[in-house]
Amino acid sequence: MISNIPALHFLIVGSLMFFIGVYGFLTRKNIIAMLLSAELMINAVAFNFAILNRYVFPVHLEGYFFSLFIIAVAAADAAVAIAIIINIYRNFDTIEVEEVDDMKY
Amino acid sequence: MVSGIIGTLVLGTITVLSYFTAWQYFFTDGKVDGAYRAITGFNHVWLTLTESLHIDLGVLLDPISVMMLLVVSTISLMVHIYSLGYMKGEDGFYRYYAFLSLFTFSMLGLVVATNIFQMYIFWELVGASSYLLIGFYYKKPSAVAASKKAFIVTRFADLGFLIGILILSFFTGTFDFAALTNPSGQVLGSIAGTSFIGLSVLSWSMILIFMGGAGKSAMFPLHIWLPDAMEGPTPVSALIHAATMVVAGVYLVARMFPVYAIWAPESLAIIAFVGAFTSLFAAVIACTQTDIKRILAYSTISQIGYMMLALGVAGYGGEAGSGFTASMFHLTTHAMFKALLFLGAGSIIHAVHSNEMGDMGSLRKYMPVTAITFLIACLSISGIPPFAGFFSKDEILAAAYTSQPIYFWVEWFVAGLTAFYMFRLYFGVFWGKKTEYKHKPKEAPLSMTIPLIVLAIGAAAAGFIPFGDFVSSDGLAHEASFHWNIASLSILIALAGLALAAWLYLRESSRPEKVAAGFKGFYTAAYHKFYFDELYLFITKKIVFELISQPLAWFDRHIVDGFMNLIGRMIYRFAVAVKRFQSGQMQQYAFVFVSGVVVLALIILIWWT
Amino acid sequence: MGLLLPLIIVPVLTVIVIAFTRTQHQTRMTAAIGMGIQLLLSVNLVIQYLLERKTGNKAEMLFRKSWVWFDSLNIKLDIGVDGISVAMILLTGIVVFAGVFASWKVKNLSKEFFISLILLATGVFGFFITIDLFVLFLFYEMAVIPMYLLIGIWGTGPKEYSAMKLTLMLMAGSALILVGILGIYFNSAPDGGALTYNLLEIAKINIPLPAQRMFFPLTFAGFGVLSALFPFHTWSPDGHASAPTAVSMLHAGVLMKLGGYGCLRVAMFLMPQAAHEMAIIFLVPTGISVIYGAFVAVSQKDLKYINAYSSVSHVGLILFALLMLNKTAITGAVLQMVSHGLMTALFFALIGMIYGRTHTRMIDKMGGLLKVMPFLGAAYIIAGFASLGLPGLSGFVAEMNIFVGAFQVSDTFHRVLTILAVSSIVVTAVYVLRVVARLLLGPIEKAEYEMIEDGHWYEKFSTGLLIVAIAGMGMIPLWLTDMIRDSLDPIMTKLASSI
Amino acid sequence: MEQIITYILLALMLIFSVMTVTSGRILRSAVYLLTVLVATAAIYFIMQYQFLAAVQITLYAGGIVVLIIFSILLTHHIEHRMENPVFWKAMISALAALGAVAMIAWVLKDAQSIQNVAGFIPPKMEDIGMALLSYGKQGYVLPFEVISVLLLAAMIGAIAVAKPALLQFKNKNFKQDDQ
Fold it and tell me: In a mutagenesis test of the B interface, which of D21, D91, D106, D110 is the best target, namely the one with the most B β-carbons within 10 Å?
C-alpha cells in the first residue's frame, strides 16, 4: 500500500523533477526544448500538490483540484506557447532562443 | 519747430519764476536776523526705507540753491533759444527738445533737493539725460562711444557716492540736509568718532561722496569723459558740460560744506588737492589741443578745479568761509562765460562746419557779433578786469593765499595758462591765417546771436554783483575784501599769457611749431592728454573685459555648466551600462530570476531560523 | 467665489475655450480676452486688498477660503493673500497679458502654444494664492512642467537640449523642495496633534531646531535653483536662449520669482532659526551670483544670453536681500521681484521682436536699429535704464531698498558683500550700454535692415503696457512698498522671535 | 509489490526527466517527457486518484505532448540534432538548480514528520463533479469557469498568434512601408 512509502520520497522526486526542469529551461537553446522543461516543472508542481493532498488532507480535495487546474492551465499555456513558437519560426526562421533578442534594450 | 517753441516758452516761464523766487528769497523771505536761512518749500515722503530713513522729494531754498536756480534756468533758457537756430532742420529736433527739457527738469530737481537721496536720484537722472544728449547723433560711432564712456565713468563715481550715502545714513539715520548740515547738529558726532583705517568713518563717507562729485565734475582722474562728451550738439555742451551739470559736483560739496568743514577736514584737504591738481593738469592739456570744443572742455575742467580748490581751502563761517563764497561766485561767472564760449564755438562750427582750429582763421571779418562776444568771454575767463572772471578768480586766489600759499602759486600759474590757451583759441580762430572757405561763413541768425549778447552782458558785468552779501558758508553776509597785491599779480600773469598767445598766434607764423618742438616730449604727452584715455582703455578692455569677463564667461560655460552636463552625462553613461542587463536573452533573465529567488529564499530562511 | 478663486478658474476656462477654437485668430483673441480678464481681476484684487487694509483688517492673509481636499493627510485648497502675493499676482497678470500679445504671431500649433502658456500661468497664479504647502507645490510643478513643452516645441536653436536641461535642473530643485515640504509637514506638530500643511498654522509653532537645520537648506536651495542661484544657474542662459519670446518673458519675469517667493514664504518664514544660522552660508553664493552674472553678461554676444546672465545677477540680488533678514532688505527683495519681472519681460519681448526682424540675436551683427524702429529701440533703452537702476523706473526703488537694507547689517562680512553687490550697478551699466550702443546706435550694419518695420500694434501694446508698469512703479512706489512692508510684519516677527 | 512499482516509477520519472533536458534530439526529448508524464499518471493511479490520472494522460500526455510533437515536426527536420549547451552556462545553471535543491532539501528535512493521515476515501467521480459545480464551501465553480474562459482565450489567442494572416492589417500604406 502507498502508505508504506514516506511522503518525503515523493516530495524529493517532485522537487528534483522541478529543478531538472529549471536546469533544462536555463540551458536549452531550442525554444521547444525549453517548453518541454517548463512542462516538467509544471508537472512537478502538480505532482507535489497531489501527493501532499493525499498524505496530509486525505478527506479533502484542495490539492487534487489544484493539480487538476494546473493541468488545465498547462494545456492553455502550451497552446499559446506553441502558437508563439510557430510565429517566431515564421518570422525569424529559427527557434534558437539566443537569436530571438529583438526586445533587448 | 513747434516742440522747440513749446520747450522754450515753458522754460521762459520757469526762468521768470526762478527770478521771482530769487527776488522773494534774497530780499523778502530769506533773511532772518541778518542770516539767510534754509526754507523747505514742501517735503513729501516718496519712499520709506527703514523706520528712520525715508527718501523725500521736496524743495529746499537757501542761498546756493536759489543761486543755482538762477544759473540753471538762465543758461538753459539761453540754450533753448539758441538751439532754435542751431538745431534747425536737424533729424530728431523734437527728440532734442524733449531731452533738453528732461535735463533741465533733472537739474532743477537736483538743485532744490532737500535731502541727499533726492540729490542722488536727480544726479542719476542728469547723468542719463547727459547720456542721451551726448549720444544725440547716434549714427556717429564716436558720439555713441562718448556717451557710453560718460555714463559709465560717472556711474562708477556714483557708486562711491551711493556707498558714501549708505555709510552716512547708517550712522546718522537721516538723509536730510537740514539735519546733516546743521553746524551744531548732534547726528554727526558718533560717526566722526568712529575710525576706520586711519580716518574717521565720516571722512571716508565724505570722501566717497566727493568721489561722486568728482565724477560728475570731471575731476582728475575721472575727467576723461568730459572732452569726449563734446561729441554732443554744441548747445548741449554749453548747457550740460560747461555751465550746469558739471558743476553739480561743486554744488554737492558746497551743499555738504558744513559737514566737510566742521567734521571732516581731512576730506576737504583731499578736495583741495584734487581741485588744484586738476586745474593745472587740464590747463596744460588745453594748451595743446586743436579741436576748439576740446580746448573749451579742458578749460572747463580746469575752471571747475578752481572751484573745488576754493571749497577745499575754505573753512566754515566768517573770513575763513570766503573760499566758499568765491567758489560759488566763480561757479556763477563761469557758467556765464563758459556758456558764452561754447555757444560762440557753436556759432563758429555752424558757420564753418568743422571743429578743428586748423580750418579756421580770420573769422572776425565774417562773424562780428560772435567775435566780439567771444572776446568778452575770453577776457572774462582770463581774469582781465573789469570782466566777471576777474573778480571771482581773484577771490579764489585770495582765499587760497590766506589758507595754503602753495595752492595760490599753482593757481596763479594756471591763471596764466588760462589766458594763454584762451587767447590762443581766440587768435587762432578769429585772427591768424587767412583761410579760404568753400562756403563763405555767415553770421549766425538772430536766435543764436541774441543769447550770445545776453550772456556777454552777463560775462562782462556779473562781477559787480556783491556776491558775498548773498552767498556765504554760514548764511551771514560776508564782505569780500579786495586784495590789491593778489589782483595785480593775477592781472600781470593774465596779461603775460595774453601777450604770449598774441606773439604766437596773432599772425600766421612758424613760432608755435618752434615752441612745441622746444618742449617736445612734454608737448606730445600733453597733446595725447597724458595717455589717460589709453590707460582707461587698457583697464576696461584688457583687464575688465579680457581678464575678468571673458574668463568668467568661459568658466561659466565650461566649468560650471560643464559640471552640470557632466552629471547628466554620467547618468546617461550609467544608464547605458545598466541597459546591458536587458540583453534580450530570455534564459539570462530566467537565470537571474531563479538565482534571485534562491538567494531571497535563503535569506528569509536564515533570517527565520 | 470670492476674489481669489477666479484667478485660477479664469485661466482654466480660457484653456478649455481655446481647446475648441478653430483658427489662429480665434485662439489668440480668446487668450487675449481671458488674460485681459485676468489682468483686470488682478488689478481689482490690488484695489480690494488696499481698501480692505484701509478698513483696519489686520489679518495676516485676507480673502481666506478653504476647501478640504485630502482629509486623511490634511491637505486643503486653502487660499488667501497678503501684500506680497498681491504684488506678485499683479506682476503675473501684467506679464502674462503682455506675453499673449508678444506671441501674437505664433504660427506653428498656436492653439497648443497658448494652452501650455496659460496652463503655466495658472500654475503661477495658484502658487501665489495658496497657503497650503502641498497645493503650493502642486501649482509649482504645474508651472514648471509646461515649460518643457513650450521650449522643446516652439523654441529655437538647440531647443531639445535646453528644454531638457532646464526641466531636469528645475525638477532636481523641486525634488529638494518636496523633501523640504514633507519635512516641514512631519514636524508641523511637535507637541502632538494633527499634522498640517497650512503655512499659517505651521508658523504658529516652532519646528524643532534639528529639523530646521535639515530642511531649511533643502528648501532654500530647491527654490534657489529656480532663482538661478549660483552654481545652479546654468539652465537659465540656455533655457532663455532657446525659449520662444513669451516663454522667456514668463519664465524670467514670473517663474524665477517663484523661487524667491518660496524662499521667503516657505523656507525663511517657517524655519527662522535655521535661516538665522545659515544665512551666512547662503549669502556667499547669492553674492557671487550678483557680481558674477553681471561680469559674465559683459562679454556675451547673444542678446538672450546677456539678458539671462543679467537675470542671474538681478535675481541673485533678490536672494541676497532676503538673506539680510531685515525688513528693508526683504521689502527690496519683493520689489526687485516685481521690478525685475517687469523689465526682464520687456527685455525678452523686445529681443523677440528684434529677432523676428533681423533673424539674428548676435549683437555684433546688428547696429543702428534705432533709426529703423524708433519705438522698439526707445523701449529697449528704457528697459536698459530700468535695468541699471535709473531713478524714476522700477529698478531704482527696489535696489535702493535692498542696498540700504543690506547696509543696516553691520558686521564686516555683510558690509563687504553689500559693497560688492552695490558695485554690480556699474557693471550693469557697462553691459546695458554696450548692448544699446552695439544694437541700436551707430550706423546701420546691413542694407537689408533698412527695410525693417517698427512695431505693430500688438507689439507696441505689449511693450507699452510693460513700460507703463515700470514707470508707474518707479515714480509712485509708496503704495507698493507700504503694501509689502505691512505684510512683512508677521514674517519679521517670526524672524525676530527666533534670535 | 505496489511499493516496488512505485519506486520504479519514481526512478523512471527522475531518469527520464534528466534525459528530457539533456537529450540531443528534440523529438526524443518529447518522448521522454511523455514517459515522465505517463509515469506520473501511474503514480496517481496508485494513489487512487483515478480521475486525475485520467486527466493527466488525456490532457497532458495526450494533448500537450502531441501538440509539442506537431510543432517540432513543423519546425525541425527529423534528423536535427541540437547542439550541446555551452559548458560554463550549463555549470552555472546546474549550480543555480543545485542551490535551489539544497534549499528545498533544507525545507524537506522537516517533511520527514509528514505521516499518512488516516481516513482516506478515494474520491468518487460524482463528488468531483459536484465540487466542480458547487459554489459553497469546497465548491470550485469559480475557478472552473475561469479555467474554461482561459482555455477559450488561449485557444483563440493561439489561433490569432499562429495565423497572422487572419488579423494582418490590410492597409496600403502599411504594405508600402513593408516593401
Answer: D106
Do B591 and D106 make contact, defined as CB atoms within 8 angstroms?
no
Domain boundaries D1-80, corresponding CATH code: 1.20.120.1200
Domain positions in chain D are 1-80, 123-166
Kindly report which listed range (B455-464, C397-406, C429-438) carries the lowest average pLDDT score.
Answer: B455-464
- Report the b/e string of A39-60 with b at 16+ CB within 10 A: bbbbbbbbbbbbbbbbbeebee
**Complex ipTM:** 0.76
Find the range with the poorest average confidence among B121-130, B237-246, B474-483.
Answer: B474-483
SS3 of residue B35 by DSSP: strand
Which of C299, C392, C429 is facing B545, going by the closest CB pair?
A: C299
pLDDT confidence of A20, banded at 50, 70, 90? very high
Span D36-69, pLDDT tens digits: 999 999 999 888 888 899 999 988 888 888 888 8
C-alpha cell at B171: 550712522
- Tens-place pLDDT, residues B275-329: 888 888 888 888 888 888 888 888 888 888 888 888 888 877 767 778 888 888 8
> What residues in A contact D17, CB-CB < 8 Å?
16-17, 20-21, 40
The length of chain C in residues reads 499
Query: Looking at beta carbons, which residues of chain A come within 8 Å of B585?
Result: 97-98, 101, 104
Give the SS3 label for residue C75: strand
Average of pLDDT values for C359-379?
84
Between CA C131 and CA C341, with CA C135 as vertex, the angle to 5 degrees is 70
Chain B residues touching D100 at Cβ < 8 A: 594, 597-598
Are the C-beta atoms of residues C244 and C154 closer than 8 Å to each other? yes
Q: Residue C149 carries which DSSP code?
A: H
pLDDT band at residue B189, thresholds of 50, 70 and 90? low
- Write out pLDDT tens, residues D64-75: 888 888 888 888
Separation between Cα atoms, residue B416 and residue B419, nearest integer Å: 5
Interface residue of A18, A25, A26 to substitute, partner B, most B CBs within 10 Å: A26
* Distance linking the first and last C-alpha atoms of chain B: 104
Can you tell me the distance from the alpha carbon of B257 to that of B251, in angstroms, rounded to the nearest whole number? 9
Answer whether B594 sits within 8 Å of D100, measured CB to CB. Answer: yes
- A2-99 adopts what CATH topology? Helix Hairpins (1.10.287)
* pTM across the whole model: 0.83
User: Neighbouring chains of D at 3+ CB pairs within 8 Å?
Assistant: A, B
Helical segments of C388-498, H only: 394-407, 412-439, 457-475, 478-497
Q: How far is A105 from chain D (nearest CA, A)?
A: 22
- pLDDT tens-place string over residues D61-116: 888 888 888 888 888 776 677 777 788 888 888 888 888 888 888 888 877 777 77
- Cis peptide preceding B63, ω within 30 of 0: no
Angle at C405 between CA C402 and CA C409, to 5 degrees: 130
Chains in contact with B, where contact requires at least 3 CB pairs less than 8 Å apart: A, C, D
